[in-house]
## 1
Amino acid sequence: METLEVAKCPVCGGLVEVAGPWVGLEVECPECTEILRVVSLHPLKLYYAFDPDEEPLPEEEHRVPRGE
Ligand SMILES: [Zn+2]
């Protein structure tokens, strides 16, 4: 049975539900549609799935203008 856990989206700060999370799992944020990857399970943390160089900085928020 899968457990449903909730993590905060690093992009928009919205809550993302992840069913049966495991490190490396990719999920899409329902708020901003950013593709995120599970980087930690305890606590559950998400980070950008596509992040070429930067290391995860838990307290830092990078907001990329999306040109709406
Ligand atoms: Zn988001």
## 2
Amino acid sequence: MQINHLHLSSFRNYEQLSVDFGPRLNIFVGDNAQGKTNLLEAIQILASTHSFRSAKDTDLIQLYQNGRALEFAQFERAAVISAEVKREDAGTILMEVGISSHGKKNLQVNGTRRSRLSDYLGHLNAVGFNSFDMDIIAGEPQDRRRFLNLEISQLNPIYNHYLLRYRRALEQRNHLLHEMAEFGSGDYGLEAWTEQIVEYGGHLFERRDLFVKEIAPLAQAVHSELTDGEEKLEIRYLCSALQNEAAQPMDRSKMDWGQAFRSDLERVAADELRRGMTLSGPQRDDLSIMINGSEARVFASQGQQRTAALSIKMAEFEVAKRRLGEDPVLLLDDVLSDLDPQRQRILLEKTNGFWQTFLSTTTLKGFPEALLEQATIYEVKGGVVTRNAK
Ligand SMILES: Nc1ncnc2c1ncn2[C@@H]1O[C@H](COP(=O)(O)OP(=O)(O)OP(=O)(O)O)[C@@H](O)[C@H]1O
Ligand SMILES: [Mg+2]
């Protein structure tokens, strides 16, 4: 699939933008703070309805211009992102995300409002790399769980349903355990909550295991390419219900995840009553990410961490492509920094594929000539995007 045309209105530092894109590699060049990331963010919001960097949707509306706050009347004019998307399987689709001054989103496909998220999602698929993705490698276990949740729900909407059910049951179970530990209250229905977390948690474990099994070898292959075979990336799923190594079956495909979770809960039952909280489950999972046998979070350099995060994203792109039967669009925000010239060159050659890529950079220095000739290049300056004449 590809985005033919993008329109922005009062979005971040863009007052009005109307721009056509090339079918393959699109490069946005500009100094710091000119609007490169904002542009990629707009595409990401159009695909997922979420921003990767603002929790508050009102932050997305243009608040000031040339350093001056906009009048309230203008601020009331909420932001609009719209695009014409061409898919191989469904022709041309018009997509629009409007953001009201109260931060409410209005989603439209082909001019019709979609009040249910599930009716909107899935028309435009984007896989993006941005600076926050470094947290997959360098961050805390919760950053890696967030990554798993986001990626698996995108591929598998039912996962999100299980996740919500699980969280609700977990909260109730924790509440009850807390009451029991604190006030010695009786066991009012603990078993029923245990049944629920075992059911939903079992599904979460299983899907996480399958997902990691699928992306790990793909990420390892990309990583080996980017490092010219010098480094080996290994990603393993650390399932909290399988902490007891001896209880792990050799073949996880035959595993009964609910049963494994239940026996792990039995293992920690006495501790749970003492501490008043659930001590096993998907909320305690993590990923082990190793480069040449050492834990990447602790030992890897900046450039190594970036290479690993990028490899995971490229693996995700591959998985999404398999599921969709066509290429999603690829968003690469500022990926080149921290990479040495050799890694930059290999990565750039990889982006020059048959799919549509949006890449931001502060300089074209080091880009191979042949690549620049095929790419569509734009200059980004103060919220204005100009396509370079060839
Ligand atoms: N709601 C908003 N209204 C107006 N301007 C905004 C808004 N949100 C962000 N900006 C401005 O957008 C600019 C940042 O744009 P962006 O993050 O896209 O820069 P960039 O070109 O990616 O720079 P860098 O090379 O440093 O990553 C900042 O100057 C910021 O003040
Ligand atoms: Mg940026």
